[in-house]
Specification:
Strand content of chain B: 15-25%
Radius of gyration of chain B: 32 Å
Shape of chain A: globular
Number of helices of chain B: 14
Order of helices and strands of chain A: EEEHEEHEHHHEHEHEEH
Largest sheet of chain A: 6 strands, mixed
Number of domains of chain A: 1
Radius of gyration of chain A: 18 Å
Structural class of chain A: alpha/beta
Largest interface: A-B, 26 and 23 residues
CATH superfamily of chain A: P-loop containing nucleotide triphosphate hydrolases
Oligomer: heterodimer
Number of strands of chain A: 10
Order of helices and strands of chain B: HHEHHEEEHEHEHEEEEEHEHEHHHHH
Chain lengths: 244, 410
């Protein structure tokens, strides 16, 4: 099966005045469907740049990036916007909900940009909110919700267009430990339902929730291994395959 | 993204920023308001003047010593004052010699007179006219009760008077004035008829006068020092110009105007008066239009300013929208339509207030109620253009924002 994400020798060059800086110095990476990956790295490691490229917010200076079989690295802005809309669900550290509209409208937003009809939008948005356990908070504005609830709204928004990939950037960074754990349980749940999840974090504990951990340092992949959980799951799968 | 969604979105944004939206609107409102109010008022005045003039009777024109509308400085009056009077004898000769007319009315007026009866007296704002029977046809007036001045009355210079409704109400309250005595400028007359009232125009009554035979007028005020107004009705619309030509040539001969010199009298018709009024108001319109255009320009700059602030303030929102899949086009149209809606709302409010205010002033001046549809359309088009012209740059700026930077913006 073709991997969901195929990154080949991706470099990203930033030019600041006379200074040239490679944020990514040649990263190659495959991520399959229904993987649960954590990307780790200290600040300045190129982790954010990699996330932006994976999230189609940015394009590589050189190298190749295929998402779901589509060559993304040469796309124009509007094509990228469409990919972001259809293929990627973003979850941000600061939630990034629109403050003046209620939860339902926030979740509806990606559907507006994908051109869905009103009735369908409401239906999909409602079921996405029910999915993250917010059936009784749909008409609340973000400032009437707790941090954990806001992040759930953001996750519902990420899910609503049924994307190939959920890309979470420090999703628990603004939450207390307990709420953070709840959110991580939600991600685990989403994974078990077949979603592909990439979490970008610098917290080891959070990364351990993922099944595969990729460490970035100085614009290169320093490490790429299965977490404890990932090993368990790999074991299980192996046993299942054998027993079959 | 469908346009209905964008409009809803823009309205939503404007609603959440009410104070700012209203302040921004104010500029547009004032600009549109001033243009519509002025145009409404001018159109109402024009319509009022036109209906007023049309009451002079169709196919009629006037011959006078002085022009009906004088433009120019105080000195320009001298040219007309130095003309010889149109005397009664000249007018009678004109009536006898000229051929191409249906009715010719000779009229002589004195103004600011007080009329009296045994019961009361009027304010000194009434006018007295010496006329001949053809007055009725040329001036589009009718008698309500009694009779009008006859040729016999004129021939014998009888002291009879036909009076307007204002005079009746003041001097003969609750009674039939026919046969009663009226003192016009200290001379006794017998009331023989009452005019059908015509009401007011521009705050002035059309019924505050009395008419007597022109010969009776001459007994009081003399004959040779006075200048006569001549009202003429052409035989038909087709022969109107020919009739005017005929009168001019005969009158030039009577008044001994040498060939090549300009007429030493004025001829004007309803149409030419309306034309003069229109060309006059036209200048006002251009001036008002220009000033309003400048104020709309200023308002447009205000809109641009507010939209630029709005784009900066909503950088994060734009980033979020882009991250979840908004294309540049969607962002562009969102901000552009917001600017246009802002202008349109301001325009509609301005138009509404302008029409109301213009007509209220018009009501005070007793002009007909008018909606200047052409200027309403022009106003809305200009508003949209202002919205587009001054909204495009901020909207473009928003659309071109890099999503990564926009998301990071705090």
């Amino acid at each position: 099966m073709e991997p969901l994400i195929e990154i080949k020798d991706v470099k990203k060059l930033y030019v600041m005045g006379l200074e040239e800086l490679y944020a990514l110095k040649g990263v190659s990476l495959d991520i399959n469907n229904n993987e649960y990956v954590a990307i780790m790295g200290p600040s300045g490691s190129g982790k954010s740049t990699l996330m932006n490229i994976i999230g189609c917010l940015d394009t590589p200076s050189s190298g190749e990036y295929k998402l779901n079989g589509k060559n993304v690295n040469e796309m124009e802005d509007d094509e990228l916007a469409e990919i972001r809309n259809k293929e990627i669900g973003f979850v941000f550290q600061t939630f990034n909900l629109l403050p003046r509209i209620n939860a339902l409208s926030n979740v509806e937003l990606p559907l507006i940009y994908s051109g869905k009809k009103k009735d369908e939008r409401i239906e999909l948005a409602e079921s996405a909110l029910i999915n993250v356990g917010l059936e009784d908070r749909m008409n609340h504005k973000p400032n009437e919700l707790s941090g954990g609830q806001r992040q759930r709204v953001a996750i519902a928004r990420a899910l609503v267009n049924n994307p190939s990939l959920i890309l979470a950037d420090e999703p628990t960074g603004n939450l207390d430990t307990k709420t953070g754990e709840e959110i991580m349980i939600l991600f685990e749940d989403l994974w078990s339902k077949g979603n592909t999840i990439i979490i970008v974090t610098h917290e080891e504990e959070i990364a351990q929730n993922a099944h595969r951990i990729i460490k970035i340092r100085d614009g290169l992949i320093a490490d790429d291994y299965l977490s404890e959980k990932g090993k368990l799951i790999a074991e299980k799968t192996k046993q299942q395959t054998i027993s079959v | 993204m469908p346009i209905s969604e964008i409009i809803k979105l823009s309205l939503n944004t404007l609603r959440t920023n009410k104070l700012r939206a209203i302040l921004t609107l104010l500029g547009i409102i004032i600009g549109v308001f001033s243009i519509i109010a002025i145009m409404t008022l001018l159109n109402a005045l024009q319509a009022g003047i036109e209906t007023g003039l049309s009451e002079l009777g169709s196919n009629t024109y006037q011959v006078q010593k002085f022009p009906a509308i004088q433009m120019g400085g105080p000195g320009s009056n001298a040219k007309y004052r130095n003309r010889p009077n149109i005397t009664y004898d000249q007018a009678v000769r004109l009536k006898n010699i000229a051929t191409l007319y249906k009715y010719m009315s000779l009229e002589d007026y004195v103004y600011e007179k007080t009329f009296k009866s045994e019961f009361d007296k009027t304010n000194p704002n009434h006018y007295l006219g010496g006329v001949i029977p053809e007055y009725l046809e040329c001036n589009n007036r009718a008698i309500e009760t009694g009779r009008f001045i006859s040729q016999t009355d004129v021939n014998y210079a009888r002291n009879v008077a036909v009076i307007g409704m204002d005079v009746v109400e003041k001097l003969f309250p609750n009674m039939n004035p026919i046969g009663k005595q009226i003192i016009l400028d200290n001379h006794p007359f017998e009331v023989i008829g009452i005019f059908e009232p015509k009401g007011e125009a521009f705050g002035q009554s059309n019924d505050n006068f009395a008419l007597i035979p022109i010969t009776a007028m001459h007994k009081i005020y003399g004959k040779n020092e006075r200048t006569i107004n001549i009202a003429i009705q052409a035989p038909s619309k087709e022969e109107f110009d020919a009739s005017v030509e005929n009168i001019i040539s005969v009158l030039r001969v009577i008044r001994k105007v040498p060939p090549g010199e300009e007429n030493n009298f004025e001829i004007y018709s309803n149409e030419s008066l309306i034309g003069t009024v229109n060309s006059f108001t036209q200048y006002f319109k251009y001036g008002a239009g220009f000033i309003s255009f400048i104020s709309l320009l200023a308002a447009g700059i205000g809109i641009m300013n507010i939209m630029l602030v709005s784009v900066t303030e909503r950088t994060k929102e734009i980033g979020i929208r882009k991250a979840i899949g908004a294309k540049s086009k969607s962002i562009l149209s969102q901000f552009l339509i917001e600017a246009i809606i802002l202008c349109q709302i301001g325009g509609l409010i301005g138009i509404f207030l302008g029409i109301v205010t213009g007509n209220l002033i018009g009501l005070f001046l007793q002009t007909p109620i008018i909606i200047p549809y052409d200027w309403v359309v022009i106003g809305l088009v200009v508003c949209s253009s202002v919205g587009i012209i001054f909204g495009v740059y901020p909207a473009y700026k928003a659309a071109k924002l890099n999503p990564i930077d926009a998301l990071r913006y705090e």
